[in-house]
Design goal:
A hairpin with a 2-residue loop joins strand 1 and strand 2. A three-stranded mixed sheet has the order 1-2-3, covered by helices on one side. It is mainly α. Helix content is about 55%, strand content about 10%. This is Metal tolerance protein C2.
Length: about 375
């Protein structure tokens, strides 16, 4: 046994569920002051095990950590094998991911054609609408990336995994739709100030084509076409944001078509009325999603657990004879359906803390808190 190795790791994944290089098994022994002064070489204990399989899971020698050679933590995330994981996930992904890829392809083809026609004919409205569609395609592409990347397992860099990417994607879509609602309101105000006789009627062709493309997307994600959707997991939230994205674009195109038709009939302030109605509709549709995703990213208390239930658990813990104080109780939702919590307990010195830990974990597990970290301090 070499002197420069402090730990030998042995594969026991079937029993403990940990890999051979799990850093949770690390233990560092600092050299004493006398050893530093005497500059003595570290002492290596002699193994008392003749059979290698009988050795303990951790075998301490000197104060360093032995990491299995040939494995780099950087390679796990930045290695060559993961460069095309998104495309592999797309090929092996579910139907919704493939549908989203088809929808993005249709929007990219349409926006490219619209941009080319707008540049050739000098139509500023077509060019502006093409850039709007291109930006929307970028957000949908980020949603597809989040769907694929969230399948990756937790590693040493992202110990909670990548599921929150889908929450971030849903929040980004919601933020974009709120900006769209605001821009439509400004456009309606601008149409009220200017002469509506200058309305660009040629945009009706573009609006009809865009509406047909977006209706395909609405059909693809029709199961998520609801304002208040109960999110069972992060995928539901991301799919819902994609559905709201294409639905808002469809409503916008329908509003432009309706405004052009009313103007052709001679209705006064038709564009102001239609664009204002579309702006309010989009705002009402997206605001619940914006609140939910923002609350998760800000690590608010889980909405599915009432504060009275958490206070009841706190009172039951503090009523224990060996517990003198409960502090730093924090609970948040990592992703929809996965609640994380932590708290600190002050207990009497010398008591057996195992019954207390079992009691605390049982209380919060009944509330639906899967991951709970308890810090024990002693008087």
């Amino acid at each position: 046994m070499e002197k420069n190795k402090s730990f030998n790791y042995y594969r026991q994944e079937a029993d403990l569920g940990l890999s051979t290089t799990d850093r949770r098994l690390a233990y560092v022994r600092q050299a004493s002051y006398n050893q530093l002064q005497q500059q003595e070489p570290p002492h290596t204990p002699i193994s008392i095990y003749s059979d290698e399989s009988a050795k303990p899971f951790l075998s301490r020698t000197v104060s360093s950590i032995d990491i299995q050679p040939g494995i780099s933590y950087n390679d796990k995330f930045f290695g060559e094998a993961d460069k095309f994981s998104i495309f592999r996930a797309l090929r092996s992904g579910n139907r919704q991911m493939r549908r989203l890829f088809l929808l993005i392809s249709l929007n990219v083809a349409y926006s490219t054609a619209e941009l080319g026609i707008g540049l050739l004919t000098g139509r500023v409205g077509l060019v502006s609408d093409a850039f709007h569609l291109t930006f929307g395609c970028g957000l949908l592409t980020f949603s597809m990336f989040a769907m694929a990347a969230s399948r990756k397992k937790p590693d040493c860099f992202y110990t909670y995994g990548y599921k929150r990417l889908e929450v971030l994607s849903a929040f980004t879509n919601a933020l974009f739709l709120l900006f769209l609602s605001f821009s439509l309101a400004v456009e309606a105000l601008h149409a009220f100030i200017q002469d509506e006789s200058e309305h660009k009627h040629y945009l009706i062709v573009s609006a009809v084509t865009n509406l047909l493309v977006n209706l395909i997307g609405v059909w693809f994600f029709r199961n998520y076409a609801r304002v208040n959707l109960a999110y069972r997991n992060a995928e539901d939230m991301n799919y819902h944001s994609v559905c709201l994205h294409v639905l808002a674009d469809s409503i916008r195109s329908a509003g432009l078509i309706l405004a052009s038709w009313f103007l052709s009939l001679g209705v006064q302030n038709a564009e102001v009325l239609c664009l204002g109605l579309v702006s309010v509709t989009v705002f009402i549709l997206v605001m619940p999603l914006f609140k939910v995703t923002g609350g998760i990213l800000l690590q608010m208390a889980p909405p599915g657990i009432p504060p009275s239930a958490l206070n009841k658990c706190w009172r039951q813990i503090i009523s224990q004879e060996d517990v003198s104080e409960v502090s730093q109780a924090r609970f948040w939702e990592l992703v929809p359906g996965h609640v994380v919590g932590s708290l600190s307990l002050q207990v009497k010195k010398g008591v057996d803390d195992r019954p207390i830990l079992q009691f605390v974990h049982g209380l919060y597990h009944d509330l639906g808190i899967q991951d709970l970290t308890v810090q024990m301090d002693y008087d």
